[in-house]
Amino acid sequence: MPELRGTVGGPVVTEWFGTQDLYKLDVYKQKGGYAALRKAMVDMKPVDITNEVKTSGLRGRGGAGFATGTKWGFINRDMPGPKYVVVNADESEPGTSKDRYIIENSPHMVLEGIMIAAYAVGANQAWVYIRGEYDEPYRMLTEAIAEARAAGYLGPKPMGIDFPLDIRLYRGHGAYICGEETALLESLEGKRAQPRSRPPFPAVKGAWGRPTLLNNVETLATVPWIVNHGGSEYAKRGTEKSPGTRLMSVSGNVKKPGVYEVELGQTFRHVIMELGGGPPDGRNVKVFWPGGSSAPVLPESMLDTHTDMEALAAARSMGGSGGVIVMDDSHCIIRAAHRLLKFYAHESCGKCTPCRVGGDWAVRTYERILANEGSQVELDILQRVSDALQNGRCLCGLGDSAGWVIDSTIRHFRSEYEDHALRHECNVGAVTALA
Amino acid sequence: MTVLSEHILEEIRDLPSKFPQPRSAVMPALDLAQEELGHLTPEAMTEVAHELQLDPGYVEGVATFYTLFHLAPTGKHRFYVCTNLSCMLRGADDVVARLKSEIGVHEPGEVSKDGLFSYEEVECLGACEYAPMCRVDHAYHYDLTPDSIARLVAERRNGGSAVAAPKKARAPRKRKADA
Ligand SMILES: Cc1cc2nc3c(=O)[nH]c(=O)nc-3n(C[C@H](O)[C@H](O)[C@H](O)COP(=O)(O)O)c2cc1C
Ligand code: FES
After folding, report:
1. Could you tell me if B148 lies within 8 Å of chain A, comparing CB atoms?
2. Among B124, B129, B135, B136, which is best to mutate for testing ligand 2, by the most ligand atoms less than 8 A from CB?
3. Distance between CA atoms of A332 and A287, rounded to whole angstroms?
4. Are the C-beta atoms of B103 and B119 separated by less than 8 Å?
5. Which one, of A375, A387, A366, lies nearest residue A434 by Cα?
6. CATH number for the B6-65 domain, one of 1.10.10, 2.120.10, 1.10.4160, 2.60.40?
7. Which of A186, A297, B25, B165, by CA, is between 20 and 30 Å from A433?
8. How far apart are CA A79 and CA A175, in angstroms?
């Protein structure tokens, strides 16, 4: 393992991180691992587990922030026939590396969370959809599953309870869209990953047409702690509407990039300047993406924005995936936006026209501006494309995200856009012409 | 004669029973084919389709959707260099430039003359706290500089036995044959 960069011994998810060989079952158990599974299966009724998660106020850490306990409650546990838990380990949102950090530190914690969730919703089988590039996390989960099977946590009678449990892995093959839950399900079923229209929601008709609980890795990794300590204990942390902690991957122009466990409600100044160590000497923060590349940008003047979802919504952004990308004042906002639009254009699955066409339009427009061929026409096109991508015109959020990059960078850096497009100048002195 | 060897075809035939519905086997099957041949040829995709009782056009449709399937020959060692924002802000472009000159190619996907190398510029690989970074031979490499990427190339060019063969990781902790 490379040098760990991030929180060890933190308040919730990272509490045991940093323990030598935590990835091994016996070490994980020594720390107290699988006590939550025992408590859930032996001492609690499934509905109590779900209620405990509701009490915690935990919200999904994959991006949308949906209330986790409520989602669990959507699954009809008594419905006959197979039900599934599907775990979103596709982690492909630019700037986001926290699920990898969790799996590499404590794969059994992820498995334990999955098992508790599966028992709570009455699913006997769980599938972890893990991005194909994650070789090491895949190996670690494979070994952890083998250990859990040998120990009887997975198998016909976990904890002596007549509730067979199995966890399988499914590797992705390089497509950002597979992180979107319905595209993920298509991919798991062996198809091109194009989002489905909802309803029906996965809770009713998910993987292989069956009721499915779909959660992010970090969401599930938080569950053992909640079962151990109680939902109300978790809810004491964070803010009223965004309780608890979340892992934020801080990257870009900071001295101490890393994955930090942050109590929600802390400021981005704390996350970026203290945890992340601030920008390199002699540089200032210019802008940051508070929740992955899809979260609308915030300029340096908004560093005191709080990390809870309500504060971010008020700042016209979002908590998203928890990926905090920091850019200092030696970099050009147009180049950054161009790079991200290239990403969204490349990753569009092609199903919805605004997204399929809009991304490429925006990329070409940025390229004209960067080649000093811009004018008011280019600025108008960017605004029109950005509008066309947003507000539910596409089946999934990918189009909106692309639109938000354009929209939010123009909103906060209009003069830089005008310098580039109208005066063919770059105020950070970066080379403007593209190779 | 098939292009895929009999034991691979047999493994592919066993795959569908591992899933709630057989169609889910298509990507794991394409993995096996790509692992054996290096890239997916039309014949290989047809054989996969045949074994899984799917339409060849369907299988190709799946293969072309995902960037980790390669439909053209690649180098024996494929560098996937992340150039997304966090890596770009920390010098990914310089890393790519050096890599291109070290392996003597001009664009992504082009195979070096000796057949050993090719590279792709890829999107965020989820290891941004180690930016800039890349993936090669099923392992991540962190905190890259132009010099360190040159070393990764040199090790593979000279080392041979020092570097694990670019095989797909299928079973944990299994020692793989050296390159
Ligand atoms: C384009 C797109 C990409 C997404 N990528 C991811 C991802 O990589 N990982 C993830 O957990 N959720 C991702 N999501 C959110 C999922 O659709 C879904 O909301 C989430 O996995 C649900 O789990 P949670 O409730 O535990 O957060 C993505 C959404 C969109 C629209
Ligand atoms: S941006 Fe390169 S690994 Fe995330």
Report:
1. no
2. B124
3. 10
4. yes
5. A366
6. 1.10.10
7. A297
8. 33
Residues with CB under 6 A from ligand 2: A 94; B 82, 84-87, 124-125, 127-128, 131, 133
Identify which of B61, B125, B172 has the shortest CB distance to residue A139: B172
Q: B29: which DSSP letter?
A: H
The pLDDT tens digits for A258-282 are 999 999 999 999 999 999 999 999 9
Rounded to whole angstroms, how far apart are CA atoms A95 and A259? Answer: 11
Burial class of residue A98 (count of CB atoms within 10 Å of its CB; 0-12, 13-18, 19+): buried
How do the domains of chain A map onto residue ranges?
25-235, 245-328, 342-421
Residue B87 Cα to ligand 2 midpoint, Å, equals 5
pTM above 0.90, yes or no: yes
Any idea which architecture A245-328 has in CATH? Roll (3.10)
What's the rounded Cα separation, in Å, for the pair A273 and A254? 8
Homologous superfamily in CATH for domain A25-235: NADH-ubiquinone oxidoreductase 51kDa subunit (3.40.50.11540)
The pLDDT value given to residue A429: 56
Q: Are B24 and A129 in contact (CB under 8 A)?
A: no
**Nearest ligand 1 atom to alpha carbon A65:** 27
Q: Which residues of A371-388 are buried (b: 16+ CB within 10 A; e: fewer)?
A: eeebeeebbebbeebbeb
Chain centroid, CA B160 distance in Å: 18
- Could you tell me the residue ranges of all domains in chain B? 6-65, 77-178
ipTM topping 0.90? yes
Residue A77: Cβ within 10 Å count: 16
Give yes or no for a contact between B102 and B150, defined as CB atoms under 8 angstroms apart.
yes
What CATH number was assigned to the domain covering residues B77-178?
3.40.30.10
Nearest-atom index, ligand 1, CA of A218: 26
Give CA–CA dist A22/A6, Å, rounded: 16
Beta strands in A39-183 (DSSP E): 84-89, 125-130, 166-171
- pLDDT digits 0-9 by tens, A377-425: 999 999 999 999 998 888 999 999 999 999 999 999 999 999 999 999 9
Cα A210 to Cα A213: distance, rounded to the nearest angstrom: 10
- Name the CATH code of domain A342-421 (choices 3.40.50.1820, 1.25.40.10, 1.20.1440.230, 3.20.20.70): 1.20.1440.230
